[in-house]
Every structure is written in structure tokens, then in C-alpha cells.
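Supplementary Methods S3. Complex input for the magnesium ion-bound model.
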Amino acid sequence: MLDVTDLYVGYYKDLHILQGVSINAADAKITTVLGANGVGKSTLLKAIYGFLQPASGKVQLDDQSLIGVPTHKRIDMGISYIPQQSSVFQYMTVEENLELGAWTFRGDRARIERKLEENYERFPQLRERRKSKAGELSGGMQRMVEVGRTLMTDPTVILVDEPTAGLAKLLSQEVYQMLVNLRDDDGITIVLVDQEIRQALKIADYVYVLELGRNRFEGPVEEFTDLEKALWV
Ligand SMILES: Nc1ncnc2c1ncn2[C@@H]1O[C@H](COP(=O)(O)OP(=O)(O)OP(=O)(O)O)[C@@H](O)[C@H]1O
Ligand SMILES: [Mg+2]
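Predicted complex, serialized as C-alpha cells:
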């Protein structure tokens, strides 16, 4: 279980974007974080991943503190991150992109081959296109490459930031289905930041709504059937 408690973090000293945010992401569930543009959703994920150092507060994975733990160690501990902006390298092949996910164990060729094979079994389309430049793939398949790259490190937690931004509806549904499968088939804990409120609520188990760097609402997804509550943003 991933626990964030009373987190203060920002990009400049003494200017805290998050001012006491707390979230708890239960194992093998999808925890969704909603909120208007600029409230600090991406900042929260960056702090959990270790790209930003909190001024105060706690980030814990299974009761182990992550404060001060560098990102590559967090990856070894099972945390992975798919950022808001596409992180696919357009001019590299699908396979090269996947291999980038293995940088923390880059000397271990056997493990890399094993993880690639697992990815190709999971996503046969990626095997077919493994020699294609990633930039030639559809937006949905590029998301698949990012998910595949993330799976190279055997994550137990995936932090995913607006995974369907800019995608057509049908492709979006495939991406959400991918997240559901990771939860249901692989038992992966997912923290999903999203602007697609309706879609996110369809797959979420538990929901947080942030407001300007603070918690506003939280509850099991059933309490959010009243879209007004989620859409106040
Ligand atoms: N690299 C940065 N340097 C300085 N300020 C930043 C940086 N990134 C974001 N901010 C500021 O931090 C605040 C929160 O940004 P953040 O990206 O976390 O919001 P968000 O909730 O993810 O928004 P969106 O829904 O638009 O993605 C905003 O005021 C933003 O301008
Ligand atoms: Mg964002």
C-alpha cells in the first residue's frame, strides 16, 4: 500500500504547490486523483516517484519511508511512472523503447530478454511492430509502448498521468482496459491522475479530488456516481 501523508512540495523553496495532501492507494486497486488544471495532480505523482523532494510530509510504500530514496531505488522497490507528456522516443524502435525500461538492470541481458518476451506475449501488436519506429505507431499503441516499458521493472505500483489525453475515444477505451487488466490480472496498484472524469470513474475503486494543493473530497467510487460531486472542478 502506498501512503502519502500531509505532503508539502513545490518547485521552488518555500513555494508549496501541494499544501498538506494525503492519499492512500490500496493494493491492487485503482486510486484516481481528480482536480482542475493546475491543482497539483502531476506534482503529486512526481513527488511520489522522487523527481521532487517534499519540504515535509510522508511518502511510504508498505510502511517503508521513501523520503530521500532516489528514483532508481524507488523503481527497484516497485514504483513506476508514466508521465503526462508522451515519453516515447519517436525515432527509436518499439523494442529500443521497451529496453529503455530496463536501464536499472541494463547489464542483465537474460532478464531483459525475458521481460521483452513477457511484453510481447501480453501485447502481440508490439511484437509485430517491434522494429518500427515508435513515432509511426498510433497514439494508443504508443501508450502501450509506455505501459510495456514500465512493466520491464516488475512494478507493484504504477503512477499514470492522464493516459488518454489526445486520444480518440476508441483508443482511450483500450488504454483504460489495459489499466483494468493490470489491476485485475496482475494485481498492480494504480494511481491514476485524469481529466477524463467519466472514464476515470468507470474504472476507479477509490477517488480523491484535489483543490488548489489540498484534499477536497475522497471516497469509494460508488459515492461519486453523483457526477456533480466530481464535476465541481
Ligand atoms: N516545472 C515546474 N516549475 C514550476 N512550476 C511548475 C512546474 N510544473 C508545474 N508547475 C506549477 O505547479 C502547479 C501545479 O501543476 P501541476 O502540473 O501539478 O498541475 P496538474 O494538476 O497536473 O494540472 P493539469 O491538469 O493541467 O495537468 C501549477 O501552478 C504549475 O504552474
Ligand atoms: Mg498534470
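The two ends are 27 Å apart (CA to CA). The beta strands are 2-9, 18-25, 30-34, 56-61, 64-65, 79-82, 157-161, 189-193, 206-211, 214-220.
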